[in-house]
Amino acid sequence: MAVQQSVGQDPYFPDNGDSRYRVHRYELTLDYRPGPNRLSGTARINAIAGRSPLAEFQLNLADFKIGRVRVDGRQPHYTHRGGRLRVRPAKPLRAGAAFTVEVHWSGNPRPVNSPWGGLGWEELADGALVASQPVGAPSWFPCNDRPADKASYLISVTTPSAYAVVAGGRLLTRTTKASTTTWVYEQSAPTSSYLVGLTIGKYQTVLLGDPGPGGIPQHGHIPAQLLPEFSRDFARQPAMMELFQELFGPYPFDEYAVAVTEEELDVPVEAQGLSLFGSNHVDGARGSERLIAHELAHQWFGNSVSIADWRHIWLNEGFAKYAEWLWSERSGGRTAQQLAAAAYRLLSSQPQDLRLADPGRKAMFDDRLYERGGLAVHAVRCALGDEAFFLMLRSWVRLHRGGAVTTEGFAAHVGRFAREPVEGVFTAWVRGAALPSLPVWGAAAG
After folding, report:
1. What is the pTM of this model?
2. For residue 64, which of 34, 14, 30, 24 has the smallest C-alpha distance?
């Protein structure tokens, strides 16, 4: 696993995360009551200090009541203000030392404020879901909230037995006692805090296709009344999984789940091993199939291969957008070149002041970043030719599985697969703002 960690704090979110240490495991024990929207939890966080002694450190946690905090079993001094839990151990932690933090908290979870509205824990009419990208994870658990700090997770959730709990990862146990059920999930692969997915609702579970020996289990969790439409809309997801494994390499996790809430969502929500869709994404006519492909592709690009900080978000969204085009091309729809041309026409009519390499916080979810990101990937494909392009992609995913990457690292990686210099492609499409000429697939090979 190759990890390119960012140095210091994320320039877009300097109040989130702490680069002085890293977490390698979270063990979360949660109790949630949907009626009063009441959450209580205990977090056991196993971490490692960085290269300097750690006299104090911080976790991100929203406005909950703190029951207690312990560092290696001892009571530290701590303050909790403005979404930051600052902890000063009884004595400084040695450089490189392993340490354990225990936090107890309780309260009514609600989304944290952001430039894009509320993020994180969202109370539904009958249940809850988590939509954390990019900084919503502290809305429900204490974490080192930076995308490059990836850890494994053990999540136990107790809730009334009428509800199902769906989380990213493998369901280990489900135990019912009296009127409550406890669901325990394990996500063993390194996971960014914003990608810890969870939804609580009244779901029916179905298997999407037969994975067969060595296949990837794929489950759907949906309200019973949406099952007929869901069955048609998601029928081709197993074929997407086969295609993306062919193009990108083996699926990086143990299984994949999708959940559909009874409520509408503006956009689907990506999480590691899990994607969340709204009822508006299920119409029985495959009207959102490109989004199904987009969210599945994020399991490779964004989840397994994560970004070192949010400046590099185009590496997540550009590849997921291009995966939409590849699925269309390979499933009988418009070709990637036709879809690239459509994206190019759209971008040519809009302001050209966005740089993929560093779009700025305000523009990191701008539609232009998605479209231009897809075009940048298409430009790389055109420069390399298909054989080298897909060989490059599979190598990128394999080398950085479970790690975090940068734009500069990707440019260097592409260069190793090119017969001619590709620096011009990155200068024009990634570092520049003006719109270059439309890349044409086949031009390099021809």
Report:
1. 0.95
2. 30
